[in-house]
Amino acid sequence: MSLFGRGSPTSSGGVNHERIEMAVNEIDMVSDVFNRIVSSCHSKCISPRYAEGDLNKGESVCIDRCVAKFFEVNKKVGEKMQSAGANAQATGASTFSL
């Protein structure tokens, strides 16, 4: 019997490895986006010479704007790629331009 009382770990209702792989891939993608945002916005908004332990108001505003712009651009690129993919599928072509 398993830890949570659901029978043996090898029962017919076992682990769906495909769903686990999809979840791991999604976590990897989200982590990558987060790391790119942190890297990009940190280098643009925060001086390499730390004067204080906390962000000052200018740095906070810069970070907010940077993250908002990052997501807006990401959204626009995704929409453009979706429409290009739909157009390519409709015409039978496999190339597109941004």
TrEMBL record:
SUPFAM superfamilies: Tim10-like. GO terms for biological process: protein insertion into mitochondrial inner membrane; protein transport. It is a peripheral membrane protein. Gene3D superfamilies: Mitochondrial import inner membrane translocase subunit tim13 like domains. InterPro entries: Tim10-like, Tim10-like_dom_sf. Keywords: Chaperone, Disulfide bond, Membrane, Metal-binding, Mitochondrion, Mitochondrion inner membrane, Protein transport, Translocation, Transport, Zinc. One of its GO terms (cellular component) is mitochondrial inner membrane. Residues 21-83 form the Tim10-like domain. It is found in: Mitochondrion inner membrane. Its main location: mitochondrion. GO terms for molecular function: metal ion binding. Belongs to the small Tim family. Heterohexamer. The twin CX3C motif contains 4 conserved Cys residues that form 2 disulfide bonds in the mitochondrial intermembrane space. Mitochondrial intermembrane chaperone that participates in the import and insertion of some multi-pass transmembrane proteins into the mitochondrial inner membrane. Also required for the transfer of beta-barrel precursors from the TOM complex to the sorting and assembly machinery (SAM complex) of the outer membrane. Acts as a chaperone-like protein that protects the hydrophobic precursors from aggregation and guide them through the mitochondrial intermembrane space. This is Mitochondrial import inner membrane translocase subunit.
